[in-house]
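re: ur question from yesterday

yeah so i grabbed the chain u mentioned. its 739 aa long if i counted rite. heres the sequnce exactly as i have it in my notes:
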Amino acid sequence: MAVSEGDIVKTLSQQILLGALLCSTFTSTTMARNTTVPVPSNAGRTIETEAPSDYMIDRRALVRRHNITLNKPDPLTPLSIGNGEFAFTADITGLQTFPEYHQQGMALGTQSQWGWHSMPNPNGYKLADILDDYAVARRKVPYASDKDYSRVYSPAATWLRENPHRLHLGQIGFRITKANGSLVGIDDLTNTFQTLDLWTGLLTSRFEIEGQTVKVQAVCHPDRNILAIRVESSLLRNEHLLVSLAFPYGKSDWSDAADWNNPQSHTTRHRVEHGGVDFVRTLDDDRYYVRISWSSGDNIRIESQHKYDILSKDGQPLEIVFDFSPKEIAELLPDFQTVRAKASHHWRQFWTSGGAIDFSECSDPRAAELERRVVLSQYLTAIQCSGTCPPQETGLVRNSWYGKFHLEMHWWHAVHFALWDRLELLERSLPWYESILPVAKATAKLQGYRGVRWPKMVSPDGRDSPSTVGVFLIWQQPHPIYYAEFCYRAHRDRVILERFRQIVFETAEFMASYPVWDESNQRFVLGPALIPAQESYGNDRARNLNPTFELAYWYWGLEIAQKWRERLGLERDIKWDKVMRFLSRPTIRNGVYTGIETPPYTIFRDHPTMVAALGFVPETPLIDPNTMKRTLEHVLRTWDWASTWGWDYPMLAMTAARLDEPEKAVDALFIKSPKNRYLANGHNFQSYRLPLYLPGNGGLLTAVAMMTAGWDGCPDRPSPGFPDNGKWNIRWEGLKRMP
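ran it thru and got these structure tokens back, copy pasting raw so excuse formatting
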């Protein structure tokens, strides 16, 4: 049977205690506490960092004790391999043999950051078709809200939301027949076993059909869109076991990126050469390329225009390499062993660089499960959230929101890379913001603002998606300033200041022009035509004012932008200072901060983001710590936890840590809630509609790093966000402080 979450929690403590006995390629070195050791980064540079441990962590043992092992099919626990730009998600066979089984759980897919498709647009729909005006300071501001279709979007808005959508690049699975010639179903598999070796990135699967064993190895190239597989089985003889490659049409669906019912809507052209095939895939105006090669003596059979079977002629192990690309592939493909070796080197380098936290000497019963979540979240965010575009909430697995990414979530997906000294994995996506500057600038200008207004639900072209919620959010606006500040803290040189100055200053220009002057109260207000991060106030978007979290974040973002001016030898911007000086203060009722200033003040469901004003946001003059402490306690007592989301728990933990409430910080990470569940594959389950939620994984890594390494102005004690009660004897290396 599958390893259950209960079994995981029960056995991890013993595994952690045995971890030091696992073989390691590294020699433990006894060191004095707080000595300085060089820690290599993925970028190849050496960074001096504090090592509070008495000796170096055996990273191989730490990682491998959380290798994922399954022994039964489970629709919620497919396993993925990838590199941040490309990912392949497999079922218990190690390939995508039974996609229907996973449709009601976690879908199987082959996806990339570059693979997108748009349906034909014969009506020429554009954002200008669905703009609605909202009254803001005696003027009309257009929003792409499709206001008259609050329950069902108009045809124009529907097309603009659904296109472009991410592509399933190709389904790679087995076609297995029994001795009597009938096709094998998932229930016919016996003695199933599957393990993902996190240290090498190798996915190994084993199962039996009518007593015949099939062994499968699958691995992704660390730098190319390449999947390599090796299959061993006596079933390869007589063609009882074939590898099938099938190409679907694009689909604008929430979970399923593959349309198998319209073969006439796309074309697959192929050219067979000795030991391989080149494919050209054309879907309307979109095109991509696939090249495959296989081991000597094997062959390919064309089943249809979009389906191909690869078979072993002599029954020898079958090795196949698949390369997917947005442009024609000129390079020869590496063989399976080369891809495996490159992946092994990459993952060893990943785990031996950057930060590490070892909870094996902690006696708190929750420590083993926390360590499992931390290790698996590092792996998942590395393969799903470290690409050249901001990630989507379900990564490269599932097409939630049509595969588009949400910029307000980028913070939760990726800022942990900076804290874990893997800043380059965050930096990979930052040029995308530079690429869409003209689009973001045009949006701000259309609405009568200066600078750039960053979109919300977006694809690589930078076009926002119509929404009755998303276009009114503002909490993604300061994010690029936060990212730039992380880069500066890491490098502290003028090169970084010059590189990101336009992003920082254009963002600040919008932030300074967006607030409305309230003459009667002599202050600047945020809103109306606003929905806060706690989206429960969406119906009042035309009246909402001054959400607590956004006020603090606005102030902090503008102050950081001013510091950038000073670092560059410029005077502080007078307009920005004026907005900061007269920005509204958060509303306090009954001694606690409310969600927003206007009725209903606080709705006790969804994200409790008022606490993020001191936690997610560093200390600002707008927030009183004592009032925030009462607010945190009030939230913990009264909130509807079933309505919360995966990043809410680390958000609460960060606030508790800054308020010197470490017990509450740890408790927040383990709040009993349906959406605070971490599956055997490490994914943060929210619901069957959203079975994985990477902002939860990234948020966990951010909170735990902050609680361990500290933050600017934190108490001077080891792991200041964890209780100093003797139960949290944490060893760590290579982490960076939170601002």
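noticed a couple things. The mean pLDDT is 92. also The radius of gyration is 26 Å.
anyway ttyl
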